[in-house]
Amino acid sequence: MWRYFFITQLVNLSLFGQDFHQDIKIDCDTNFYLLEAYQDSLPFYEKEFGHNKKISIRDKKLKLAFYVALRHYPELKNVHMKVNLKKISATMMAQPTYSFLFHRKEKRHYQIFVNSTQANNGMYYKDLTFNSQVGWIGHEFAHILDYSQKSNKELLVFISKYVSSKKELKKTECEADRVAIRHGLGKQLLEGTNYFYNNKRITKAYREKKKIYYLSPDQIVTEMAENCK
Ligand SMILES: [Zn+2]
Fold first, then answer.
1. How far apart are alpha carbons 115 and 124 in whole angstroms?
2. If 0-12 CB within 10 Å is exposed, 13-18 middle and 19+ buried, where does residue 199 land?
């Protein structure tokens, strides 16, 4: 997806590097989220947190997981986001809409694609527990938070590095995991990652990719311990 985007959209690229770090209040004392406890909460969440959000998937569990994760990211409360099903080679992915070049970063819209198929590609979202879905979406929110702090030019530079450098890919994905942990979603991320590591239905190639580019269960535990003192 990014590769296609890169080829078709990249214009006037210049390289410069800059790291963006935001001071985030660390609150790691979160619960294990159970769907049963949130069954009646969707109208409340849509009213309180649905501003500029459009979830085109008729799946109450996923919608609730989206909003429960969003509560951990107050920085994204007013950010425009769409969630759509799509056949992709990952479980979920987040990116700005293709028209981002024509808008200032404050007006940018983002989309989260959720893998629509149970076959071969990424893990099927319905196979994840509610708690794991919250963590998974929290990882995607970490990407959106990162994008939202970049200017258009910086975003283009980032995309070019992401698609061309495995080192940059790993750095980006591990940092997204760390940001999710710092937003209090370590337990959720850990459950999803453990499930992923032990899920024989996932292709070996995708499992190996995740082992290389994302935090391992042990690393998540270490990060939680370091960030939650
Ligand atoms: Zn990611």
1. 6
2. middle
One-letter amino acid at 54 equals K
Distance 33 CA to ligand 1 centre (A): 21
Q: Which residues of the chain have pLDDT under 50?
A: 1-24
Does the pTM surpass 0.90? The reply is: no
pLDDT for position 40: 95
Q: How far away, in angstroms, is 34 Cα from ligand 1 center?
A: 24
What's the confidence (pLDDT) of residue 6?
39
Q: Residue 79's closest CA among 70, 88, 87?
A: 70
The CA distance from 143 to 177, in Å, is 9
- Please report the pLDDT score of residue 20 as a whole number: 34
Helix intervals (H) in 71-118? none
Ligand 1 centroid – CA 173 distance (Å): 5
Which residue's entry shows tokens 């995991």?
A: 177
Whole-number Å distance, alpha carbon 84 to ligand 1 midpoint, is 16
Give the C-alpha separation, 40 to 68, whole Å. 13
